[in-house]
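Researcher: Sequence recovery benchmark, item below. Answer with residues only.
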């Protein structure tokens, strides 16, 4: 089990990774399904609860994977746009629902050139 300080540091690290492609707290909050003020509080050291910490870590993982395949400028659009591999839902919706495997599957299908 991680100490509270370590969890806060990990959350800030995830926020930095995500912020490299999502340029506003408002958009990041929309992707995560929280308020923009919540994102701001995490940035200054407030520890997210477990559910939000999981979402934050999942989004950071997806961003890291996307950086290997897409131009930085279009990653935010990929996260917030309808995705045929997700039956028209957005990756953000699935991240909010804790369905990271579906988002990674859509990303893998995109990389493989599979058409939905």
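Model:
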């Amino acid at each position: 089990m991680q100490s509270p300080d370590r969890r806060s540091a990990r959350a800030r690290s995830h926020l930095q990774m995500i912020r490299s492609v999502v340029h506003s707290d408002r958009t990041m909050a929309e992707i995560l399904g929280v308020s923009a003020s919540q994102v701001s509080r995490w940035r200054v050291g407030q520890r997210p609860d477990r559910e939000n910490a999981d979402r934050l870590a999942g989004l950071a993982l997806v961003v890291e994977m996307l950086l290997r395949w897409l131009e930085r400028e279009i990653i935010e659009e990929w996260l917030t746009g309808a995705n045929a591999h997700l039956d028209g839902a957005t990756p953000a919706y699935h991240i909010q629902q804790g369905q990271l495997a579906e988002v990674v599957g859509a990303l893998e299908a995109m990389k493989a050139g599979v058409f939905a």
